[in-house]
Structure formats: structure tokens, C-alpha cells
Design goal:
This protein has helices spanning about 5-10, 310; strands spanning about 20, 55-60, 65-70, 75, 80-85, 95-100, 105-110, 115-120, 125-130, 130-135, 140-145, 150-155, 155-160, 180-185, 190-195, 200, 205-210, 220-225, 230-235, 250-255, 255-260, 275, 285, 290-295, 300-305, 315-320, 330, 335-340, 345. By secondary structure, it is mainly beta. Strand 8 and strand 9 form a beta hairpin.
Length: about 350
């Protein structure tokens, strides 16, 4: 599902291998992928927690946090829903990414005005106001990306971390060259996504760059996760600058080559923004306009039924997280949902939270 440049920036600001299967072209046929059947149920209508839920995070205490466009961050502590405005209303109350450091502090990032903010459970402390993204590595070190650079946190101080982008990007989505640290894998390698320059792997000594020539479906990557076999998955979107490129999709890297999935409808030639690897080891993939796929290591299953098609019938997925009970939470254009049995169930201000 295409969005305006402003919304794209809100949702996820960005700052040799063998390709198996083609990435371009229109979505392919379902290739006998099972689709979860609908289940009918009646519930009272509940107002969405926000029109757009663009970040989802479960902290180490079990509290759920949902970044929104226009309502700051929504917090559910297991009993009640509350709203916090990390920047005091600046930046349009946009919180687009959330992370937690090794000391248990939460970090929020968003538009100009929001920038990047540390929260110690009592006080919000703004580090800077420039539009930013925030993430954490496996040791709880904080990384922040801006339009101009990438920074690594050292306590409350940040130092610039240079990623060698290489030649100028010919096509990009929002902000050419913007970089963010997205994943530290089980081997300790760091993976950086970028807008227009592909992805970069850093092994502690040297960088390796991967682009479309190596097997990525596009050079703009929005999300990266690792599955139970240690394979790395990439969610790619098409470039919109200077013109739409018609690529995008999801690919998997096994250390020697890339695998694409053109036989699965919506996983090639589509904008894929969000991935999640759950505790069971399954990979969840948000396929714009079609729903969400779950890959269990052998097969894809598509979830495309919802109790509120008026809110998320377009399936514009921006965020996923998992709570301590193993419940998966999904931030859509339209509000917050969770999988309940066989379909997406809307979770509004009054629930249902359990």
C-alpha cells in the first residue's frame, strides 16, 4: 500500500551472493499458501488507541508500548492504558521507534521536535530534537540514526559511527543515504539498513555491503530479523525518488546467497515494511494490502481476516511485538490488533486486552 512521503517518514524514518528467484514484477499467485479461515464473533466497538500505530515494543518488565502518529506513546501495564507525550507535544506527538537500554531506560524517537528522548520511568530527557530513529543491540547499547549520520550510545553520550555507503544512490524512498542499526545477529554481526544503499554487515572489523546486484529486492530496506536457523531476513520497499521503481519484497540470506519468494503472493514486487521473529522461531511478514504471513520454517500461512475491515482492511502493517504470554500485537494503519485464533482482532482503548 503506497503512502505519502510524510507518512512513510513517520512510519520508519531511515536515515557477493546468489539470488534465487526473481524479485520484480507484480505479486505472484498464492502458490497454494493456506489462508486462515474467518471466525465470526461479536464485540462492542472500541475506539482505536490511535489512527496509526507505528511502533510496538514489550519492555523487560512486561509493559507494552505503542508509538503513534499524533498521540505520543500509549502504555499498557497489564491493567490500564495510558498515554505519554515524551516531547511535551513537540514533533506532532509522533513516536516512530522505541528501544530499551541495558539499565532498563526506554528510548523514544520520532519527527523533528521529538528527536530522541530517554525515559528513566519518571523523567523524559531529550538528547536532541532532530528527526531520529532508535534501536538497541543485544548488549543494550543504544543506536540512533538521523538524516545526517548514525550514532552509537555510550551511556548518555553519543558518538558518530561511520558506515561506508559507497557510490551515490540512484533511487531512494525518503532520504537518500539514511542509515539505522537494525539487528545484532546471533554471531555478533551488526546489520544496518539504509535508504537507497542496500544493507551493511559489520563483523567488528570490516563492512560488507549487499545491494540488488547481490540479491536484495530493492536497495531500501526497512526491517531485518534473524530466524531460528540463523538466516537473516530483509523487508524491502520500492524507491519513490526520482520515480517509483516497482521492486520491493522480502528475501532471506543464509550466509552464502539470497532466496526470494516470487511464488508467494505479495512477497515480491510489493512494499514490505515490517518483520518479526517470535520466540517460537516463526517469522511474521507484513505484506502490504494482503495481510500478514507466518513462516514456520517450512511453509507460509497468510492471515487476512479481521473483525474490523473498516480499520485495517488495507493491511498497512508498521509494527509487531510479542508479550510475555506469547501474544502477538500488530500496529496497523487503522489501530492496534492482535491475532486471536484465526484472525486479527481489534484492540481499542477499552480492549479487549486479554
Amino acid at each position: 500500500m503506497r503512502r505519502s512521503r510524510r507518512l512513510l517518514s513517520s512510519l520508519r524514518s531511515l536515515g557477493g551472493a546468489l539470488l534465487v528467484g526473481a524479485c520484480g514484477g507484480p505479486p505472484a499467485a498464492d502458490a497454494q499458501v493456506p489462508v486462515v479461515a474467518p471466525v465470526q464473533a461479536e464485540r462492542p466497538v472500541s475506539e482505536p488507541i490511535a489512527e496509526y500505530v507505528v511502533a510496538a515494543f514489550a519492555d523487560s518488565k512486561g509493559v507494552l508500548w505503542f508509538g503513534t502518529l499524533g498521540k505520543g506513546v500509549a502504555r499498557f501495564d497489564g491493567e490500564a492504558l495510558s498515554y505519554l507525550s515524551p516531547a511535551g507535544g513537540k514533533g506532532g506527538d509522533v513516536v516512530a521507534s522505541i528501544a530499551e537500554d541495558s539499565a532498563g531506560n526506554l528510548w523514544f524517537a520520532g519527527h523533528d521536535g521529538t528527536g530522541i528522548i530517554k525515559y528513566d520511568g519518571v523523567t523524559f530527557s531529550q538528547v536532541w530534537e532532530e528527526e531520529s530513529t532508535v534501536s538497541a543491540d543485544r548488549r543494550g547499547n543504544i543506536w540512533a540514526g538521523t538524516r545526517r549520520s548514525l550514532f552509537r550510545g555510550e551511556g548518555d553520550r553519543f558518538s558518530e559511527f561511520a558506515v561506508p555507503l559507497g557510490e551515490e544512490a540512484r533511487a531512494y524512498t525518503i532520504s537518500s543515504g539514511r542509515v539505522a542499526m537494525q539487528l545484532e545477529d546471533s554471531r555478533g554481526d551488526l546489520w544496518f539498513r539504509s535508504d537507497g544503499y542496500g544493507v551493511f554487515r559489520y563483523d567488528g572489523e570490516a563492512f560488507t555491503r549487499f545491494t540488488r546486484r547481490d540479491g536484495l529486492c530493492s536497495n531500501t530496506v526497512f526491517d531485518i530479523v534473524e530466524d531460528r536457523q540463523g538466516r537473516v531476513w530483509f523487508a524491502c520497499v520500492q524507491a519513490f525518488q526520482p520515480a517509483a521503481t516497482g521492486d520491493g519484497g522480502v528475501v532471506r540470506y543464509d550466509g552464502s546467497g539470497f532466496t526470494a519468494f516470487p511464488e508467494v503472493k505479495g512477497l515480491a514486487g510489493n512494499d514490505i515494511y515490517t518483520l518479526h521473529a517470535d520466540r517460537a522461531g516463526d517469522v511474521w511478514i507484513g505484506a502490504s494490502g494482503l495481510g500478514v504471513y507466518r513462516y514456520d520454517g517450512e511453509a507460509f500461512t497468510r492471515y487476512s481476516e479481521t473483525d474490523r475491515p473498516d480499520l485495517n482492511g488495507g493491511f498497512g502493517l508498521q509494527a509487531m511485538t510479542e508479550d510475555r504470554r506469547g501474544t502477538l500485537w500488530f500496529g496497523f494503519s487503522g489501530g492496534l490488533f492482535r491475532v486471536e485464533g484465526s484472525r486479527f482482532v481489534h484492540v481499542g482503548r477499552t480492549g479487549p486486552w486479554r
